[in-house]
Amino acid sequence: MLDFFTIFSKGGLVLWCFQGVRGPAATAPVNALIRSVLLQERGGNNSFTHEALTLKYKLDNQFELVFVVGFQKILTLTYVDKLIDDVHKEFRDKYRNEFQQKGALGLLNGTFDFKDDFMRLLRDAEESSKVRAPTVMKTFEQSLKSQKTVKCMIETRGEKPKEKVKNKKNKGSKKEGTEAVAAPTKASAGDKQLSAAGEKEELTKDEILQKNREEFFRRHMKAGEKSRSPKPDAQKEKGKKPRVWDLGNSNAKVLDYSNSATNGSAEACPVEEFDPDMALGDKNREPGRLYDLEYESDDEAEEEKVVQNSSKPSVKKGGLGGMFGMLKGLVGSKSLTRGDMDPVLEKMKDHLIAKNVAAEIAVQLCESVAKKLEGKVMGTFTTVTSTVKQALQEALVQILQPQRRVDVLRDVMDAQRHRRPYVITFCGVNGVGKSTNLAKISFWLIENGFSVLIAACDTFRAGAVEQLRTHTRRLNALHPPESHGGRTMVQLYEKGYGKDAAGIAMEAISYARNQGFDVVLVDTAGRMQDNAPLMTALAKLIAVNAPDLVLFVGEALVGNEAVDQLVKFNKALADHSMAQTPRLIDGIVLTKFDTIDDKVGAAISMTYITSKPIVFVGTGQTYCDLRSLNAKAVVAALMKA
Ligand code: GDP
């Protein structure tokens, strides 16, 4: 019934393999398991499906071994878990000496004659599953209910039994956790942030956003100063103009297109209203460079705090204090057990949830870390806390690092060589920052010497075309044709409102091809992920125009609501596409990152669930506020206490 059972080392050596009679070769499914689960830190669940097969696996972290069994997914084999446990125990006991003494070379030369043992274990496991008697329902007399008296079941109004109150409390706290998964509306997400930050409760939502933004820029500025090469003193004296970070007050005005006087048309917008310095933001940056998201990491201080905290309670509890208490947290040359890790993992899970990581994902992550560490022998001077924390940190970085890297500049150059424009489509719900970030990406592309045609395919929302026209005018003012050899670097392709968006995108692409534009950026109308007709229209736009890159724009501000949007957009594109192999979302633009302080969990949830890379991060309202994701910076913010 089994298709295969294989035992290999984490270094990649296959030590032993059982191949079922008619089963497929183990290579392809096992490779898929390694690529998609083990290397991607998705090991929380010890089961994986690959085509028609279910794979179950177990890690031995002490001897660095992996045990994998494969069988047809339509079968319900109840004995597989037992079999894998038995094989694991027997194999490591039988070859313990080889593993301990000979190292990797020993494994290479070793002969693992395990067939007879395996067949015996398989027979035993199969027998044990057959022998098990069918479960019989309890009679009423055997149930707990029968032992209760009628009196204790009567509830008097207003008087709640203590236990119930307690349960209710727990329920409430659970709800808080799950609310993080699916915040129904933007407002509620904002409210959630409000209540999460206890001390901020009296502030209004705007004040909190403003405060978060200031905090973000304060940190960002510090980190930026640290990482960018120090300028010579002479240059410093010349006077680096201080950055103006209070964007909420000043720059919002600059980019506020709701002003009726502006109304998007060139004539209506007096030149003096447009302050290029404000729209540009940081003037000291290198033009055309996409800076990494930076974050001040007070990691070392944090680490010390965590170690201290973890050792403190043990001193108090044991009442022993002194040297013994200090050493208690250290686990010298001992293999880690689940019991050692559980309290730390519980804390880590709560911490992740508090940072806006979806509750289910926090659980899965901690489970994956536990599986990876269980049985691992610890170094002499390491604490359980620091080991778990480090493993979690590595797992988070791994998740954020994309399986597929999107290098827009390289791909644009490639398209240029083929004399065709590179097409990016932006999609997402209303108000997340599609147009603003499209403008930032235009600015970045122009600074890299590429000409851009913006296709105004949001033919629905009033003001959408005018908003893009204003951006186009401003971008042209910042990069006039004179500084680009007479070439207009950005142009708007629009056909007003109410027309078919897919048709306009198609016309724009062919216009761009004829006029020699390097990139076409297609803005689409915001739509709710549940709106089937609008999602069909988007799928059509994408199917008909076959863009090179489909970017989903999601705001970090709404936390896990953005995850729901992304999952549903992706699914809707698959469901509503008429093509046989539907075109899905390729990457994410995560906007409003400046408004969330260190509650960066949505970034983890989004990439964990969909494996889509975060290609750009929007961190403000000026054209220079575009960043690339720096996994380490996000993880540092996430781990910060
Ligand atoms: P659209 O409806 O998706 O096209 O969204 P808009 O581009 O019109 O943006 C909605 C609002 O979000 C505008 O006020 C933008 O200035 C603001 N916005 C966009 N991106 C960011 C960002 O990264 N940070 C901040 N703080 N605001 C942003």
From TrEMBL:
Location of this chain's protein in the cell? Endoplasmic reticulum membrane
Keywords in UniProt for this one? Endoplasmic reticulum, GTP-binding, Membrane, Nucleotide-binding, Receptor
Q: Report which superkingdom the organism of origin falls in.
A: Eukaryota
Instruction: Give me the stretches of Polar residues compositional bias.
Output: 248-265
Region Disordered, as annotated, extends over 156-201, 220-287
Please, one GO biological process term? Answer: intracellular protein transport
Compositionally biased intervals (Basic and acidic residues): 220-237
Zinc-finger among the record's keywords?
no
Matching Gene3D superfamilies, A to Z?
3.30.450.60, P-loop containing nucleotide triphosphate hydrolases, Signal recognition particle SRP54, nucleotide-binding domain
What Pfam families does this protein's entry cite?
SRP-alpha_N, SRP54, SRP54_N
Note whether Membrane occurs among the keywords: yes
Q: What is its membrane topology?
A: Peripheral membrane protein
Span of domain SRP54-type proteins GTP-binding = 613-626
| A GO cellular component entry from the record | signal recognition particle receptor complex
User: What's an example of a GO molecular-function annotation for this chain?
Assistant: signal recognition particle binding
Entry's family note: Belongs to the GTP-binding SRP family.
Name assigned to this protein:
SRP receptor subunit alpha
Organism of origin is: Junco hyemalis (Dark-eyed junco)
Give the organism's phylogenetic lineage.
Eukaryota, Metazoa, Chordata, Craniata, Vertebrata
